[in-house]
Each structure stands twice: as structure tokens, then as C-alpha cells.
Design goal:
The chain is an all-alpha fold and about 210 residues long. Helices cover about 75% and strands about 0% of the residues. The chain has two domains: about 50 residues, Homeodomain-like (Arc Repressor Mutant, subunit A); about 150 residues, Tetracycline Repressor, domain 2 (Orthogonal Bundle), CATH 1.10.357. The N and C termini lie far apart (about 75 Å).
């Protein structure tokens, strides 16, 4: 007597996605350890297993693989950050939530390691800096600028506020001196209270400049 339908065989698409996920995870660790210039496709291929041709079937070059690693890495945090502003509301509340979460995400050890890698390599390999900017900061600017445009239209901010300029100012204020000190590894990780204090200061300064 048949007790149930047989499980469907694993699809080729699912296997391909698992392999792609494996490649990205391995490549991320190697890039963070050895830098862009010190990483070879041969080493990644050896760690993944199989022939080098298999790796190139997924990513045609080291640049393309690095771009994919950045996109995957930063996409994990994009929704977390943009979620603080998508619901809307008055700038005093929304920007405070954004500033706190933005700095908290930036200060995570894996994100600091990624930034150090990008800064170290971008001088010799401008495509590394461009890939990082396109995958991370540009998205944050866009989401924040869209919110600011709505806040201007709602009368919360000055009518002559340029959304992208204001968004960039807010991002820099949110990073504050705390981020630079951690990036340079000259201070321990800040406390939650210090992050909140930085966020409050960032919002006060922003609203002093752009508030209606």
C-alpha cells in the first residue's frame, strides 16, 4: 500500500544555488584573509573542490566573484538598515532609529574587516572600491534620500533640502568619530549607550541644518 508520494529529486537549479552559496562563502573567507590581490581563483577552486572550470562556470573572473561576494555580504544588512526608514514618520524618530542601527551594523567585526579590505585594495584596484560602493553605500544613500524627499514634501524639512546631499550628511554624522576609531583599531567596541549618544548628536546636528 502506498503511504505517500516519493520526494521529488533535487532539482538542478537547487544544486546550482547550493554550489554558488558554497563558492561565495569560501571566497569571502579567502578575500578577507588574503586581500583581493593575494587571492587566486586556483586556491578558491581547490577549496571548493572540483575543477577550475567549475568555478569559472559560475564566475567568469576574480573581479566578478569579488563583486558577487560584496553584493551578497552587504545585502544581508541592507534590509536591516533600510527597515528603519521604510515605515516613514517624523525625522526625529526615523533618523534616530536609522543612525543607531547604521552605526551598530558598521561596527560588527565582519563589516570592519570588509571595510579594511576595501580601503587597502582600492588604491591599486579601483574596481574594488567601485564594487563596494555600488553594493553598499549607494543603496543606503538611495533609501535615505527617498525618505528625506518625502519628509521635505511633508513639511518636516526645509523645502530647499537636496535629498542626496542631506542623505550623505546624515550617513557621515551617523558614522561619527566612533567608526573611524574602530576602523583604525585604536579603541575597544563602543557600548550601546555610546552608540545611542552618537545617534542623538547626529540627529540634532542634521535637524539644526535641515529641519523646517
Amino acid at each position: 500500500m502506498e503511504t505517500g508520494k516519493p520526494q521529488q529529486a533535487d532539482s538542478g537549479e537547487a544544486r546550482r544555488e547550493r554550489k554558488r552559496r558554497q563558492i561565495l562563502d569560501i571566497a569571502r573567507d579567502v578575500f578577507l584573509r588574503d586581500g583581493f590581490s593575494g587571492t587566486s581563483m586556483s586556491e578558491i577552486s581547490a577549496k571548493v573542490g572540483g575543477s577550475k572550470g567549475t568555478l569559472y562556470a559560475y564566475f567568469a573572473s576574480k573581479n566578478e566573484l569579488f563583486q558577487a561576494v560584496l553584493e551578497d555580504f552587504l545585502a544581508r544588512h541592507e534590509a536591516e538598515i533600510s527597515g528603519t526608514i521604510t515605515a516613514g514618520g517624523p525625522p526625529g524618530e526615523v533618523l534616530l532609529a536609522f543612525s543607531e542601527r547604521f552605526l551598530e551594523v558598521l561596527l560588527r567585526p565582519e563589516n570592519l574587516a570588509l571595510l579594511r579590505l576595501v580601503y587597502a585594495e582600492a588604491g591599486r584596484f579601483p574596481e574594488v572600491g567601485q564594487a563596494f560602493y555600488d553594493s553598499g553605500p549607494a543603496n543606503a544613500e538611495q533609501h535615505l534620500a527617498e525618505y528625506i524627499r518625502g519628509a521635505v514634501e511633508g513639511g518636516f524639512l526645509k523645502q530647499d533640502t537636496e535629498p542626496y546631499l542631506a542623505a550623505r550628511q546624515m550617513i557621515l554624522l551617523s558614522q561619527g568619530w566612533i567608526h573611524n576609531r574602530r576602523l583604525w583599531n585604536v579603541t575597544p567596541a563602543p557600548s550601546e549607550a555610546e552608540i545611542k549618544e552618537n545617534a542623538h548628536a547626529a540627529v540634532r546636528t542634521f535637524l539644526a541644518a535641515f529641519g523646517a
